[in-house]
UniProtKB/TrEMBL annotation:
It holds the Pfam family Lon_C. Residues 1-83 form the Lon proteolytic domain. One of its GO terms (molecular function) is serine-type endopeptidase activity. InterPro entries: Lon_proteolytic, Lon_Prtase, Ribosomal_Su5_D2-typ_SF, Ribsml_uS5_D2-typ_fold_subgr. This is Lon proteolytic domain-containing protein. It comes from the Bacteria. One of its GO terms (biological process) is protein catabolic process.
Length: 92
């Protein structure tokens, strides 16, 4: 799945990833989101099954982040990588 693209510097991800690419729930979501906010990340991907844990995160910190509940690691990769470099002017 190597694409040669960089991971965006403003995103974080937490969760357990299975060999099939499913994102499984984890503990400590509140603490991980608080750390992400402190480190000035803008977007954090969490397991969809951890979405109820967002109720424990203070509104001020949660408002500073875009939290995206996800079920599949391929969805995360598609959103977490920098856009592909333009290849304008390259002859076929």
């Amino acid at each position: 799945m190597a694409t040669g693209r960089q991971v965006r510097a403003d995103v974080g991800m937490t969760g357990e990833v299975t060999l099939n690419g499913r994102v499984l729930p984890i503990g400590g979501v509140k603490q991980k989101l608080l750390a992400a906010q402190r480190d000035r990340l803008s977007t954090v991907f969490i397991p969809a099954r951890n979405e109820p844990d967002l109720d424990d995160v203070p509104a001020e910190e949660l408002g500073a982040l875009v939290v995206k509940p996800m079920t599949d690691v391929a969805e995360i990769v598609a959103q977490a990588l920098e856009p592909a470099a333009e290849t304008a002017g390259v002859a076929a």
